[in-house]
Amino acid sequence: MSSPSPALHLLEHVFGYRAFRGEQAAIVEQVAAGGDALVLMPTGGGKSLCYQVPALLREGCGVVVSPLIALMQDQVDALKELGVAAAFLNSTLEMDAAREVERAFVAGELKLLYVAPERLVTPRFLSLLARARLALFAIDEAHCVSAWGHDFRPEYLQLSVLADGFPGVPRIALTATADHATRQDIITRLRLETARQFVSSFDRPNLRYTIVEKKSAREQLLSFIRREHEGDSGIIYCLSRKKVEDTAAWLRTQEIKALPYHAGMEAEARARNQQIFIRDEGVVMVATIAFGMGIDKPDVRFVAHLDLPKSIENYYQETGRAGRDGQPADAWLAYGLNDVMLLTEMIEGSGSAEEQKAVERAKLSAMLGLCEATGCRRIAILGYFGEQTQPCGNCDNCLNPPKLIDHSESARKALSCVFRTGNRFGVGHLVDVLQGKQSPKVKEFCHDRVSTFGIGKDVDEATWRAIYRQLLARGALRLKLEGHGGLELTDAARAFLRGDAPLSLRARTEKFHYRGERGGE
Ligand code: ADP
Ligand code: ZN
C-alpha cells in the first residue's frame, strides 16, 4: 500500500481521526495548495479541521479570525492538548500576555493564532502580519460580514484588507449560514470572487418536520408529546421568559419532567437545570433561544416551538439540536397570525436601521412562507439555503398531503375588504366586516355601509384568517406597523384581484374557535 497523504497522516497523528468527512479532504487540498475557499457547512459539520490541517501542512502560522471569544479559548486549549503551538489574541488577555503572544507569532513559534476581528484590523496587528510568516487566513463565522447574516459585525467589513495586503496568502472563509443573499455578500465583501466554493448539504434526513396551526397551543403540544415522545428528552422554545416559566410549570402539572431556562434566571438555577437536562433522561427543557448554543446532547428526540422563529435560519439552527445522534427525531412547530404580529412589532420597535429592518421583515416573511407551504417542508427549507432536493417522505406534508380547496374568490373579497375599509384595519375587524357583524368598531367606522359588508357570511372565521395569512405570506398584503396589526395592499395584490393568481388552502377537518381567543393565542 502506498503511504497516506501528508494531510491524512496529520489527521490521524495529530487529531486522532481516521478519515476526512464529506468535503473536508477537498477543502484541505485546495487551501494547502495555496488556493482560496468559501466553505458552507452546517454546524457540527467539521469546519475547524478545514483550516487547522492546512495551517499545519504549510509553512508559517495560520491566522484565524473569529468573533466568538469563548470558543477561541476552547479551541486553543484543545489544540495545545494535541501538541499544536496555538494561541489567541483578544480583549481578555492582559497586556503582558498579549505582548508575549505577539512576540511568539513574529518569531515563527506559532502554528495557529486566533484573533478577534477588531484587533486584527488595527495598524499594530497589521504591521505584525507584515513581519510574520503566514500559512493562511481563516475567516470563521464569515456571515458576520453580511447584513443578511443574523450577526452582522461592522469590523468584518475591514477584512478585505487581507485580500489587498497579503495577496499571496490563501484565505478560507467558513460559515454555517448559507442562504443565497448571505453567500453573495460574503463573496463580494471579502473579495472571494475567485475562491472555490464548497457547499455541504444542510439536510438532516433523520428530522421529521411538522408545522401546525395554533388552536390551543398547549393542548396541541401535550398531545404531540404524549403521542410521540412520552419519556423522551426534548427542548421547547418560547419567545418570552414568562411563557417559558408558565409552560414549564403547566407541563409539570401534566406529569412531564419540564424545567425552565432563560437569561433572566439566576445563573446558578440556570446552570443546575442545564446540567439536569444533559445528565438525566427524559427531561424536557422549556427555554428561550438563549438555550442551546454549544450544548451537545446527542439524544434530544424533539424540538418544539410554541412561537414562530424569526427566520428560517433560526428555525434550522434550533431544530438542528434534535437528533444529533442520527436517530429519528421530531421538529414540531405551532404558529399563528398573532406570532407574526408580535415579531413584526419587535422588528419595528428594535431601533435598527431601516435597511436592517427590511432584511428582518423579509426573513420573517420567508419563515411564514415555510409555515404556509403546502408542499414538502424539506424542499422549502433546503431551497432557502440554495439546495435542491426531492420530496422527502419525512415531513407532515409528504406524509399527509394536505387536501386543497380553491379560495381564489374569497381571496378577492378579502383584499377588496382591506381596500374598502381604507388599508388600515387588522384581521379581526376585516373578518367582522366580511361576515356582516355589527361590532362596536364596525358601527364606529360605519363599515356596515361599505360594499364588502356581509359578503363573506358563507365562510367561517378561521378560514378567513387563514386566507389573510396566505395573502400575507404571498406578499399581497403587508402589515402596517404603526397601526397595531393593520393590513394594507401591496402591488402584488393586483394579480389576485384580477384573478391571475389562484389561492388555495388546506381543506380543514375541524373547525377552530377563534372567537374566545381574541387578543392572544
Ligand atoms: P463546526 O465548526 O462545523 O460546527 P467542528 O469543527 O467543531 O464543527 O467539528 C464538530 C465535531 O466533529 C468536533 O467534535 C470534531 O472533532 C468532529 N470532527 C470533525 N471532523 C471530523 C472527522 N474527519 N472525523 C471525526 N470527527 C470529526
Ligand atoms: Zn417532505
Automatic annotation (TrEMBL):
CDD domains: DEXHc_RecQ, SF2_C_RecQ
CC cofactor: Zn(2+); Mg(2+)
A Pfam entry, by short name: HRDC
Catalytically driven reaction(s): Couples ATP hydrolysis with the unwinding of duplex DNA by translocating in the 3'-5' direction
GO molecular function: DNA helicase activity; hydrolase activity
Enzyme class: isomerase
Entries under NCBIfam families matching the protein: recQ, recQ_fam
PANTHER family xref list: ATP-DEPENDENT DNA HELICASE Q1 (PTHR13710:SF105), DNA HELICASE RECQ FAMILY MEMBER (PTHR13710)
Protein family membership: Belongs to the helicase family. RecQ subfamily.
Protein's recorded name: DNA helicase RecQ
Organism: Chitiniphilus purpureus
